[in-house]
Design a protein that fits this description.
single chain; alpha/beta; Rossmann fold; 7-stranded mixed beta sheet; 8 helices; about 15% strand; globular; lipid biosynthesis; fatty acid biosynthesis; fatty acid metabolism; AB_hydrolase_fold; EC 3.1.2.14
Length: about 260
């Protein structure tokens, strides 16, 4: 009974529709603010048999729509770590996070390293600042509940997302806006200060961005890992990764990085 409870708990948080028992590596994907797992579902099918893809489902969305939102980043880290721990001890893993998901993936990776000595073989970040960047400071000052719904809808449109399908009914629109506000609020609770003389990671880090997106402060990644840092700009805006040609590039590049990690 305990095992089935644990398994259901894990399945609720860690979504893996295309299981590959013989995969060399697990790729865990973390979505953007208000995002779910559906965007990464196809990746599990498209990657080669050497990589099994899972994505993280946070409370308040999809099958967890009726669950209360988390209070802060620490809550997310604790839940995700508990759900992932067993499978991450079994074989090598890498993380991919886009925008809000980049900060969540970093926070989870940091916790895994500090508490369990587990480290991804590669961190892939997308559309985000380095987690210790001063560019994140202005985010802390914004009161999301002072911002009008229309302004958030316009902002999401400016980012190049395709929110229209999620905003067709009033109910969907309300839920999407609430999700966005809540995820943004969680991001405001995230903070990390690098201890003097301590480099948290030794893995390689690859940062992807859209060429039309705003510039991101990525320099600070050099202080966060002793591994190599690579930067790639792909054509498009903040949601460049939803373009089929870019998706193919991402998959090929991620596969190459993982297969070259000497597993």
């Amino acid at each position: 009974v305990l095992f089935s409870w644990f398994f259901l708990g894990m399945e609720k948080v860690v979504v893996c529709p295309y299981k590959k028992p013989d995969a060399l590596c697990r790729l865990i994907c973390f979505s953007w603010a208000a995002g779910g797992t559906s965007e990464f579902t196809a990746w599990g099918k498209l990657f080669s048999s050497s990589i099994e893809v899972s994505s993280i489902r946070l409370p308040g969305r999809e099958s967890r729509a009726n669950e209360p939102f988390v209070k802060d980043m620490a809550d997310i880290v604790n839940e995700v770590t508990s759900a992932l721990l067993k499978i991450l001890q079994e074989k090598p893993f890498a993380f991919f996070g886009h925008s809000f998901g980049s900060y969540v993936s970093f926070a989870v990776a940091l916790h895994l390293k500090e508490k369990y000595g587990l480290e991804p073989i590669h961190l892939f970040t997308s559309g985000a600042h380095a987690p210790v960047s001063k560019a994140l400071l202005p985010i802390k000052c914004v009161n999301m509940y002072d911002i009008k719904d229309e302004d958030i809808v316009n902002y999401m449109g400016l980012l190049g997302a395709t929110p229209s399908k999620h905003l067709q009914t009033e109910e969907n629109r309300k839920h999407m806006l609430l999700l966005f506000r809540e995820d943004f609020r969680v991001l405001q609770t995230f903070s990390f200060e690098k201890p003097e003389g301590n480099t948290p990671f030794s893995c390689d880090v690859t940062c992807f961005n859209g060429s039309e997106d705003k510039p991101y402060d990525l320099e600070a990644w050099h202080d966060l890992t002793s591994g190599d840092i690579s930067l790639y700009k792909l054509p498009g805006h903040h949601f460049y990764l939803l373009e089929p040609a870019n998706e193919i590039f991402l998959m090929k590049h991620i596969t190459r990085c993982i297969e070259n990690a000497g597993l």
